[in-house]
Amino acid sequence: MTVLYYADSLGLSRPGYVTLEERYIYIFEEWLRKNSPEKIFVINRARAAFTIDRLHDVFKEDIGYITEPKDILIIHEGICDCAPRPISASTRKLVSRLPGIIKKRVIHYLHKNRAKLLKRGSVHFLVPQPQYEKILTEWLNMAVEKFRVIYLFNIAPTNQRIESHSPGFSKSIEDYNAIMQQVVKNINSNKIKLIDVHTIIKNAEQIDDFITEEDGHHITARAHRLYADLLIQLAQQGG
Fold it and tell me: CA-to-CA distance for 58 and 42, rounded, in angstroms?
């Protein structure tokens, strides 16, 4: 059984929060090994700060080297794509090239005034919505031709602390989740399982049990357990 896994830093361990053994992909892999008579091969491509375009490029590279039957594809990304930022990626590169003391002052100003700038309409995304929809559509259309099942996690909500620091973050998450839902609906394949962690976590009694309080987007060990349980439940149902 071949499993390909693509995620941003939410799929990685996190010192002080999530150990290697607590990662949901590890828990799911261990469950597969115990419950499948087949050999299990997991290609883990979780990468920090990777947006959908970069992950898709890695996927396209990988797919050409795997001749074995492709069983499961897991995609978990979007938070880097949809996070509202007060400056564009090109401006950010210019800032990174500034002399040290000036760069520090600019970064401090942007951090201190992030909420004001976003409220004034200075809002930029690493992957704008039309581009995000285009890449996800291309990726899933290719995947349904090659894989037995595709698990697609949507984007978990942020907390109130980070929403105050980055006004509009919650709406942006919902907008990109809506794109995921529409793309899946348009492709209309029963191979694609859209896993709605956003609703589950948003309706939880304490969102910070699942989302790291300090940054509002990395997931906790409890969330990893939830994600693993959802994958296992779908696999047990044959989906």
Answer: 15
**What does the pLDDT look like over 171-199, one tens digit per residue?**
999 999 999 999 999 999 999 999 999 99
Residue 190 is part of which domain span?
2-84+127-236
pLDDT tens sequence across 18-66: 999 999 999 999 999 999 999 999 999 999 999 999 999 999 999 999 9
The count of domains in the chain is: 2
Q: Cα 214 to chain center, whole Å?
A: 18
DSSP codes joined into one string, 26-81: HHHHHHHHHH-SS--EEEE---TT--HHHHHHHHHHHHTT--S-EEEEEEE--HHH
Which CATH number belongs to the domain containing residue 45 in this structure?
3.40.50.1110
**In terms of domains, do 203 and 104 share one?**
no
Shared domain check, 225 and 177:
yes
Listed in sequence order, the residues at least 6 apart from 150 whose beta carbon sits closer than 8 Å to its beta carbon are 72, 73, 74, 75, 140, 143, 144, 191, 192, 193
Would you say how long the chain is, in residues? 239
CA angle 48, 89, 137 (to 5 degrees): 65
**Closest listed residue to residue 125, CA positions, set 76, 168, 83:** 83
Look at phi and psi of residue 161 and say left if phi exceeds 0, alpha if psi is from -120 to 50, else beta. alpha
Per-residue pLDDT tens over the stretch 89-145: 889 888 788 898 998 888 888 889 888 888 898 999 999 999 999 999 999 999 999
Select from 124, 149, 174 the last residue of a domain: 124
Is the domain of 80 the same as that of 93? no
Taking only the tens place, the pLDDT of each residue in 205-228 is 899 999 999 999 999 999 999 999
